[in-house]
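yo, NAD-dependent epimerase/dehydratase is done. seq:
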Amino acid sequence: MDYILVTGAAGFIGFHLSKCLLDQGYSVIGLDNINDYYDINLKYDRLKELGVKRTDAEEYNNLSSSTKFDNFKFIRLNLQDREQLPNLFKDYNFSKVCNLAAQAGVRYSIDNPESYIDSNIVGFLNLLECCRHNNINHLIFASSSSVYGQNDKIPFSVEDNVDQPISLYAATKKSNELMAYTYSHLYGFKTTGLRFFTVYGPWGRPDMAMFLFTDAIMNERPIKVFNNGNLERDFTYIDDIIEGVFKIIDKGTLSTDDKYALYNIGNSNPVKLMDFITEIERKIGVTTKKEMLPMQPGDVTRTWADVESLKKDYNYSPNTSVTKGVGEFIDWYKQYYRKNKNI
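structure:
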């Protein structure tokens, strides 16, 4: 049986992608180290949605079968494990690999640089080596809009120069792109990088703006608004992201001699931060206090994705409005925390 390997399967995007692939009949092995960067209970609950028992998922290097999907198995493993990751590739025939595992977060990278090198550089190199030595046809991997830094040309294009990252997180993601290009050039397997733009939606990460704002408002705390609210983000709903990633996995690379491809994947419709906050307040029915703060180190003023090449090559069509996306997240938040925390 051929499997697709999805790393970061207990994470926000990895969970949604795994579920999408399973619903479409693909066989998936999900990998995650379940680190404590944010609440691990949320990660285990995502896996529970995929039919993996927490007691099974807690064991390191234990391949757990799903009780919900016959075609899903989960393994808790670090990407940088140079003994066990190669063994996993030897034991299973992966038709494709989708790497969504990474140490995420721009601000966290300022105080915790080592974890970014370990996961995003050493771990990614280990994954590339496994792909090289096991005849993997196609590696799809997550990059980030953070690589654009303070780029003032809009919308952001993959043709733009991104040689001046302003956070270590961004530097590691740019490094991933360079490493993937080199391996494609040297060893002939195909790699596709995806620069994600501000993904939000149900089961989202607690360190992201959508979650932080909602959590603060629901718990009657003021929200922190950086750069005095003078920010714009290309907020992209999770379903639109998954649509794009799935099409690349399902269709594969285009019939071209170029082994390496790079795309932006976003909504291509930037929204002012204050308008985004207003929509959250409207949905919840509360106008909250706002703590206006200066710009944070490593942050950028605006993001805006040029996604024309992804539309052209894969018929990508993001169409979820902020109104709908915000509503879906808040409905999930209320249901999830009412169930788990009795609020």
